[in-house]
């Protein structure tokens, strides 16, 4: 195993003062898998104050000294250094009543959630693997350290973490762990929505997300009942060969790894179960767009998403069923409402949606592929898309003799419409001429 020289330096600084230190957790797991670790964590016998002393010449960030964690900046690399811990008894299925610092690495490893996350490594002593982490890595499975039911009752978030790691790493859940995940799923109600959101976002961006969501839809239903309502919901339509949930998962399997896209794909049809009607032609879901948009807003608020993500995802769900024709006029209108990035995301959502339709209806329309090019071309032309870049202003209209008030706003937006529709160029003289006609009531 290779570890960065900054982590090696931190370990020797701690050892020089007589403490033990190892890198631990996700970075060991990822290194053994040949994946680049997100961050390097160090576990040590040194108490937090002793850690602070060892790194008195370094920049320290207080991350949670009470829980034994300090972040140290070693040669520009942030390292989380945590004292060996023993989490003791848990309160409310989430918080240890008290964190006790412990003297041994073994105890610290035993408090960790999964065998693949409970390995430590030391440049000279090698890997410490007390719970068969390497064997589970080789078998590509997530297994709790100790009895799964007990571990989930200590901390319900581990239920979702198990699914998250399986989805991201492309692993499955060991059978006892899987059984306990299903059986104890209601413990998720004790977990703060922010924590659920964090794990869920990582989960849905994982390579194996569709399979994990399929196998554990009951677990997801604990905090997303709207999505669980789609499970097994038949569409009875020639356009569809899957139920609503399966359609969603197939669409998700085509989605690029981008959070707003993945969220929107997951939620795009969430309004369907509330909108089902049937006639001699089969099933219909009229109005599922607006209903799904409202549900999406509610879901994202409930899970405490930031405003920007929530707005983008809501816009994507709202528009998922309207494919914009590849015409400049139409694209410009879309560009007034969506950022370029959001338009690319919308194209992706629509492509995934289409690919999950029945044979014969599953080909994305060619106009979808053309939209990004059109957006680019319109940007390059620096075309006028808003009043800000319109060649005339309210002051111009005033000097033409327009009275102050609403008439000015109305006229400006009529002029902008004309420019967007290419009935008029964005040219001052042409627009002023048109404004004169409007004020005389001659414009058509
Ligand atoms: P990532 O690549 O997402 O950072 P990670 O394994 O480092 O994955 P973190 O959430 O950063 O995951 O946690 C670091 C380590 O702390 C884990 O590997 C695990 O050993 C331990 N851990 C984290 N959360 C829990 C928990 N809820 N219960 C038990 N151990 C946990
Ligand atoms: Mg980590």
Compact overview of the structure:
This protein is an alpha+beta fold and 444 residues long. It folds into 4 domains: 5-139, 2-Layer Sandwich (Beta Polymerase, domain 2); 140-220, Hydrophobic Seed Protein; 224-383, Hypothetical protein af1432 (Orthogonal Bundle); 387-440. It is built from 22 helices and 15 strands.
Structure characterization notes:
The protein has 444 residues and is of the alpha+beta class. The chain has four domains: 5-139, Beta Polymerase, domain 2; 140-220, Hydrophobic Seed Protein (Orthogonal Bundle), CATH 1.10.110.30; 224-383, Hypothetical protein af1432 (Orthogonal Bundle), CATH 1.10.3210; 387-440. Helices cover 49% and strands 12% of the residues. The protein contains 22 helices and 15 strands. It has helices at residues 5-16, 26-33, 48-54, 105-110, 133-138, 148-154, 157-169, 175-183, 193-204, 209-215, 217-220, 225-228, 244-253, 259-267, 288-302, 307-319, 328-337, 340-355, 366-381, 394-399, 406-420, 428-440; strands at 21-24, 41-44, 59-64, 69-74, 77-83, 85-86, 90-91, 95-96, 100-101, 119-122, 126-129, 141-142, 172-173, 277-279, 282-284. The chain has a seven-stranded mixed β-sheet with strand order 3-4-5-2-1-10-11. A two-stranded antiparallel sheet has the order 6-9. The protein has a two-stranded antiparallel ribbon with strand order 7-8. β3 and β4 form a beta hairpin. α14 (259-267) crosses α18. The longest helix has 16 residues, at 340-355. The radius of gyration is 28 Å and the shape is globular. The relative contact order is 0.06. The mean pLDDT is 94. Residues 25-26, 38-39, 41, 112-113, 117-118, 155, 157-158 line the site of adenosine-5'-triphosphate.
